[in-house]
């Protein structure tokens, strides 16, 4: 059984930071509560926390229709989706068919779009939906397109998640609308983990329409949320540090698989009400990143 609980690969996926986020949940008495990702993507942390029973309910929002279709299909049409995994052919002809579905979602059902999203996520380099296939179109690379497509393991992950369907709420909204409309009905015992598209370097990786002004506006909306506790992660560029300069934060180095050349600093920012488990934060982040980070700069500001 694989360590990851999410069936999606996500460049910069944060599931390796789950122990740190779990520590925040425990330190703030939020265990057994609700956990929310307004920019869910592969929802790696949410799935770990749900499957382990640390939280009772997760809310996943993503403005990408493709990502929404995937989550909705595995939760609501589990058997059909898993049958599609069992019977799918892993070759370039099928990859082209799935890419066509991904490019023209309006001509297809939710299950078809959800499956195409999954198929390309598992067969493309770094899981980037708009990127190239593993091994190239001629399939003469070291790795072939099936390198990340262990059918049995992926079906198992999906079945585990679907068995917890009653504990998952799905949304397909712009995060700003989610913040304004949906956060107010969350129970007080909630933690919102906000992992927006990066300020720099993100266009290639994700659907992202955010310009610098949008990040600034989102920072304003996020910092107005006082009733529930939240944490934010970002690339630690000067602009982001400025937008959140009145909040506590810490910066660490992180290297992504999706673009090996990019080694950047990341930052975690905390709402004022969050108790930050200081010493464990250092050791967990250190532990989670030790293979990827040579220099860890830590300092709660
Ligand atoms: C940095 S990724 C999140 C990765 C996630 N934390 C994980 O571990 O897999 C950002 C996600 O935000 C979504 N997104 C981009 N713009 C958005 C918006 N305005 N509102 C909601 N979601 C958005 C993208 O589709 C992408 O899935």
From TrEMBL:
Q: Which GO terms describe its molecular function?
A: methyltransferase activity
Keywords of the record: Methyltransferase, S-adenosyl-L-methionine, Transferase
Give the Pfam families listed for this entry: MethyltransfD12
Which BP terms does GO give this entry?
methylation
Looking up InterPro entries in the UniProt record yields: M_m6A_EcoRV (IPR012263), MeTrfase_D12 (IPR012327), SAM-dependent_MTases_sf (IPR029063)
Q: How is this protein named in the record?
A: DNA adenine methylase
